[in-house]
Amino acid sequence: MACLERASPALKRILLKLYRENKSIEIDHHLYEFGSVEYHIQSSTSDTHYTYLSVSTPLLSQGVILPNGISQYTKQMVKGICPDVVEIMEPAKEGYQITLRLDLSKIPNGKDSIKVIADISAVQAVILSSQLKEMLMNVSSQDTFQGMYKTIKLVYHPREPFFIVRQPQKILAVFPIRFKDKTDVIIATAFFQELMDVGSSEKWAKAPPCCWSPIPPPELRGEPFEDLSTNGGFVSFDISSRHVKGKRLDKTVWSLLNFYAYVKYHVKSTRSFIQRRMRKRLQRLVEVLQKRSMQEEEKEEEEEGNHKVQGCMFMRKMINVSKPKVLKRRYNDLSGKIKRIRSRIKIQGFGRFRRRWLKMPKFSSSLGYTKLD
C-alpha cells in the first residue's frame, strides 16, 4: 500500500526559507490544512536563535488520548525527530496541543538539512501516528466488554471515520466507504474485489488479509447509524501481531491512516485512464470517418476533372471545324425547316373525301331581285 507524503509542503517551504536566510526574520504566520489542522510559526529579530512552532490537530479518539493534550508517548516520538533541533515547550501555547522550540542553527549543512526540515514539517503526521501506535500496542482490561473488545472510532479526516477493533489474536480495522458519484462506487467495488483476490494468493500471504462486504461486519453492531450508512460497503483488514512489530508498526499505522486517500487516488487514476482510452478510441473512429470522407471528395474531384477534360476536347474539335462549313450547315438546317413549314401535309385519299363531303352547297332563290338605279 502506497504511503502519501507526510511533510506539510507549506510548512516545509517556510522553514527552509528561515534556515537559508542565516539570520533572524520577523515572522508571525498561521497555516491551515484539511480545514482542522493549524500551524503557528513565530520568529523574532530579538530572539536570533530560536523559532517557535505550535501545532493544533484534531485527536483521533477522545476516549483513548488524554483529554488535556497529547500523551507522553507522543511527546517522546515528536522529540525523537531531531533531539538537537527540537525542544518541546511546557506548557503548550493556548489553543494548541504542542509547541516546539526550533534551533535551526544546529541543523547540519548539505542534503541532510533538507531531510531534517522535512522531518520537522511532518510533526502533525508523527502526532497522529503516535496516537494510533499507542492504541495498537496498549491492551487493558477496560477494552473488553462482555467477552468482546471495545470498538474504537478514529477520525483522521472529517467525514471519514474508521474503526479499530482489538481481538484476542488480531486487530480488525474497518473502513466505511462513501462516494458521491455512482461511477466511483463501481470502480472502487471492482478494486476491492481484486484486492481480495490478490490478498488471498500465496505471493501476498504475509500481507494483512482484506475483506470487502456491502453490509457492516458484526463487530460494528451498536455504532451510530450515520457512521454505518455507506454506498461503497465496508473494507476490513486483519492485522496480526507480526504486522505491528518493529519497523512494520510505522508502515502499518501510516497505511491505515491514508487508506481513504489511497482509494480515492486509485479511483481517480482509473477514471482518468478509462476516459483517456475512450478519447483515443473516439479519435480513431473520427480519423476513419475523415479518411472515408476525404476519399469520397477525391473521387468526386476526379470525376469533375474527367468531365472538364472531355468538355475541353469537344471544344477543341469544334474550334478545328472551319467557319464556312459551320455556316453552310446552319443554312441548310434553316432552309429545311422553312420548307417543312410551307409545304402542305399530303394525306392519301383526303382529296376525294374533300370533294365529296366538304363541297359547299349552291343555293337558288325563286325570288328575283331588281337592280335599283
UniProtKB/TrEMBL annotation:
Keywords: Actin-binding, Coiled coil, Cytoplasm, Cytoskeleton
Subunit structure, interactors included: Component of the Arp2/3 complex.
Summary of the function given for this chain in its UniProt record: Functions as actin-binding component of the Arp2/3 complex which is involved in regulation of actin polymerization and together with an activating nucleation-promoting factor (NPF) mediates the formation of branched actin networks.
Protein name (record): Arp2/3 complex 34 kDa subunit
Top-level taxon of the source organism: Eukaryota
A GO MF label: actin filament binding
Ranges in a coiled coil: 279-306
Keyword Coiled coil: yes
One matching Pfam family: P34-Arc
InterPro entries attached to this UniProt entry: ARPC2 (IPR007188), ARPC2/4 (IPR034666)
Compartments in which it is found: Cytoplasm, Cytoskeleton
